[in-house]
Amino acid sequence: MPGCNHCHTDEAAVSAANPGFRKVLWIALIANAAMFFIEIGASWRSGSVALLADAVDFGGDAANYALSLFVLSMALQTRAKAALVKGVSMGLYGVGVLGFALYAAFSGEVPVHTTMGLVALLALAVNVGVAAIQYKYREGDSNMRSVWLCSRNDAIGNLAVLGAAVLVGVTQTAWPDLVVAALMASLGLSASVSVIKQARGEMRVP
């Protein structure tokens, strides 16, 4: 509808200035940074590519939350530029995970499924909690939307890692782990396209 985008932008600016959203970002930043270190260690212990992909994603999200906090009170175009950076980083993450999964496919190492499962459950609890407190901000500007997409994708990825852990235990092969890593990469690429498209549109708003 004509004029809807302008109204939506004004509402997003009001939401972005909300102290509640800033608090949500701080909680998400701390939770993601903690899970990055936990999953990095668990991924090397278990030999899981999916866990490693999730760990890198947690680290990237923590950096993105820090960037979101930095630009939160700035003009829409500045927030859109920050979202553009995050969108590009999501795309690079997706490409990198696909490359690492391809490399791991030739190593033949079978991940430790019990470690995968336990860490995936912990990560799922963290991401569901973060996504829940971000839910009401999901329709904001591209910067706010990118925050929501990060948490949504992470929760989906954790469910997939948990399923892969079960299948690795049943089949005693690495393929479920590699398939889930590829799925997580695809989610990152999809979110990248969505955020970049919205950010570019907002950068053209006078």
TrEMBL record:
Recorded superkingdom: Bacteria
Residue span(s) of domain Cation efflux protein transmembrane: 25-199
InterPro entries: Cation_efflux_TM, Cation_efflux_TMD_sf
UniProt keyword annotations, A-Z: Membrane, Transmembrane, Transmembrane helix
SUPFAM superfamilies (alphabetical): Cation efflux protein transmembrane domain-like (SSF161111)
Spans traversing the lipid bilayer: 24-42, 62-80, 87-106, 112-135, 155-172, 178-196
Annotated membrane topology: Multi-pass membrane protein
Compartments it resides in: Membrane
Name assigned to this protein: Cation transporter
Species lineage: Bacteria, Pseudomonadati, Pseudomonadota, Betaproteobacteria, Burkholderiales
